[in-house]
Amino acid sequence: MSGEEQERMNARDIALWALREKHGNVAANVDRLATEHNVAGEDRSLARELAIGVMRHRGLLRAVLRSLLARPGRRLPGPVGDIISLGMYQILFLDRVPDFAAVDEAVNQVIRTNHRRQSGLVNGVLRTAARQYEKTTAGAPSLAAEVIPIGPNAYYVAEKPIFADPGRNPAAYLAEAFSLPEPLGRRWIARFGGLEHVAKLAMYANSRPPMIVRVNTLKTEVDAMMARLVQEGVEARRHSNGVSVVVYDAAGLLASKSFAEGLMQPQDAVATAVCLAAAPKPGVRVLDLCAAPGTKTTHMAELMNDTGEIVAADLPHKLRPIEENCERMGISIVRTIPAEKLGSLESHGFDLVLADVPCSNTGVLARRVEARCRFDQRCLTGLVKDQRFLAEAGAGFVKPGGRLVYSTCSLEAEECSEIAEYLVRRNPHLEVVYEKLTMPRGAVDPTQWNDGGYVAIFQA
User: Fold this and answer.
1) Is 253 inside a domain boundary?
2) What are the backbone angles phi and psi of residue 98, rounded to the nearest 5°?
3) How is the beta sheet containing 236-238 ordered, strand by strand?
4) Which residues contact 235 (CB under 8 A, 6 or more apart)?
């Protein structure tokens, strides 16, 4: 990026360069660049919306672009492809951005990035897209090569087939129409019952997830929390699980007094359900492996009425967020330790051990959009190796009569039920007493939303 480009950074520029970063996740890249260039408020929010939206729908956007090029296989120089994707995302998905503004800004971006020769191409492609896709059709999109799914109840119809034939090559169709990696699409079709069901899962993965917060029962309860948020001007509704709240203004929530005073903690309903199933009792001793940033750690402390002890372990640079969350929420029973010092803890010394392990995140693709780009068999094999190690390590800290809780944000059998089977084979003294795979849901109604994930509880 040239010095001139740095001086001119606006929301769309932030989004462009966040997408082109080779390291880190796109949301973190947006936040870092926005801070460096003093982009705040609505512009910062727009930058996040654009960058995350393009990452989430990259396969679809590329397929639409190919359909509009005279030479579909041509290679676009530098950032031109990403600039077109940003403009295309605004035209197809964002009603609040006028099409002419999306086109003009894309052309200006091409010029600012020293690719003026491509400005005519960018202008023509995006104006054609704006003309062809001026208005969505209401209703559930059908699985067809010419239907562009925009959401659970909206779609465009193209003038010609854009995607792979869903009947002949369903995995390639999912990769284009729903931006789901082909290897993952093939796995899900084989495991979850065919294209129609997998398309619904992919639609959840492409939805904007709501902000869901768990109410801190050490300080308040749900009804009081709802009333407090109304007073602070934050729109919210009770979640169907009865213990969480859906917030419709994430930025307002994080800036509110209620958050600063520790009355709630962002946490999806499926993660909340893990701790409710674990049900740690007041006074017990708990070990939380892979604890950062402390959402499950603090939830267990609430369920324990802040009595007993929780040892929270993770990499050294991840410990401070756990401590900050505990301080904010008024929790005193958590002690953090670096993961390399786990060997200093006594074996079989804990009533409850939680192993919430790193995983492929295939159950939370809506929240972790880059996970779809990282998924392949090699990555999965490496994760399974680490998960086996962590699950066995956790089992070694459970006292006789205690419990081990193993959880992931994955839908893949290798990371879920097969780990449970492996652990029992290696540790005959363990018995599975609870096991659940939760599928993502709630794309239409945020109060019903939960991410996907897995939990197994073992009794020693």
Assistant:
1) no
2) -60, 145
3) 236-238, 244-247, 211-215, 264-266
4) 229, 247, 248, 249
Mean per-residue pLDDT, 65-70: 93
> Are 104 and 149 in the same domain?
no
Q: How many domains does the chain divide into?
A: 3
Residue 30: closest CA among 17, 41, 366: 17
The reported pTM is 0.92
Last residue of one domain, picked from the residues 78, 104, 132: 132
Tell me if residue 342 falls in helix, strand or coil: helix
CB burial of 11-29 (b: ≥16 within 10 Å; e: otherwise) equals bbbbbbbbbeeeeebbbeb
Residues 125 and 98 in one domain: yes
Q: For residue range 109-120, what is the model confidence (pLDDT) as tens digits? A: 999 999 999 999
Other residues' Cβ atoms within 10 Å of the Cβ of residue 69: 14
Residue 223, domain member (yes or no): no
Residues 126 and 91: beta-carbon distance below 8 Å: yes
Q: Are residues 163 and 42 in the same domain?
A: no
pLDDT averaged over every residue in the chain: 94
pLDDT in the model for residue 1: 47
Distance of alpha carbon 193 from alpha carbon 457, whole angstroms: 27
Q: Which of 205, 227, 260 is the last residue of a domain?
A: 205
CATH number at residue 409: 3.40.50.150
Q: What residue type is assigned to position 161 of the chain?
A: P
Task: List all residues 6 or more positions away from 123 whose beta carbon is below 8 Å from its beta carbon.
Answer: 103, 106, 107
22 pLDDT higher than 80: no
Q: Are residues 66 and 165 in the same domain?
A: no
- In tens, the pLDDT along 96-105 reads 889 999 999 9
Q: Which domain holds residue 141?
A: 137-205
Q: Is the CB of residue 435 less than 8 Å from the CB of residue 274?
A: no
